[in-house]
Design brief:
Helices cover 67% and strands 0% of the residues. By secondary structure, it is mainly α. Helix 1 crosses helix 2. It is globular and about 70 Å long. The protein starts with a helix and ends in a 6-residue tail after the last helix.
């Protein structure tokens, strides 16, 4: 970039930050959202804005430890920063990092994907993008709970590893299927319980009558 272009970009960033006002983590202007082609400008805007709000620690991971009393409040604030970061991206980009656990993970994920690395030819760029995509898929699968072990094995066993978007879609489908199955099992269990309760009630009603039949008649 030329000196004029750098100065122009700097002025645009400062203007966007100034227009945010004093409200906490107000959504970024649409024109400055991450599209995949404006990473450097977006990166500068995000760092400048969060630094001005005193929340840069959420990007670099220098918050309190989990056993410290201030961690709960910081963790709640981190969730707000995560939401703000997602809103600062185009939906097709935010979807790829929706399951990451912290703001730092989201930030580093986008750095890995969009940082500028000089390549000699287009094939090098394609190879790098493919490598980064696989790495993000592996990170996503590694963070899944144990109940998704089977779907994790199925994805890793495919001849060609799906993209991150495809992987997320597969996991969401499996999650929905499990939810339907659990609901069906719950309804079935409730029906069985009602049948047992009805049977028990009938037995309790019949028992006094049965005892009356068993009582010997008084001799005259």
């Amino acid at each position: 970039m030329s000196g004029k272009e750098i100065e122009k970009s700097k002025n645009q960033v400062e203007s966007a930050v100034a227009n945010q006002g004093s409200n906490e983590l107000q959504n970024i202007q649409t024109a400055y959202r991450l599209t995949g082609k404006n990473y450097l400008k977006w990166c500068q805007l995000v760092r400048t804005f969060l630094k001005g709000k005193g929340k840069l620690s959420h990007l670099i991971g220098t918050g309190p430890q989990k056993d410290e009393t201030s961690f709960k409040a910081w963790d709640e604030e981190d969730s707000k920063v995560m939401s703000w970061l997602w809103n600062s991206m185009e939906p097709e980009i935010s979807d790829t990092c929706m399951f990451l656990p912290t703001a730092k993970d989201i930030w580093e994920s986008e750095m890995d994907h969009y940082r500028c690395i000089e390549m000699k030819c287009s094939s090098d760029v394609a190879a790098l993008k493919k490598f980064i995509e696989k790495d993000r898929v592996y990170d996503f699968l590694a963070g899944l709970n144990t109940e998704f072990d089977q779907v994790r094995v199925q994805i890793l066993g495919k001849e060609e590893l799906p993209t991150l978007n495809e992987t997320i879609s597969i996991v969401r489908t499996e999650e929905s299927r499990r939810g339907v199955m659990l609901e069906a099992l719950s309804n079935e269990g409730s029906a069985m319980l009602s049948d047992e309760e009805r049977k028990l009630s009938m037995d309790q009603t019949a028992l006094p009558n049965f005892k009356k039949l068993e009582q010997p008649r008084n001799s005259n």
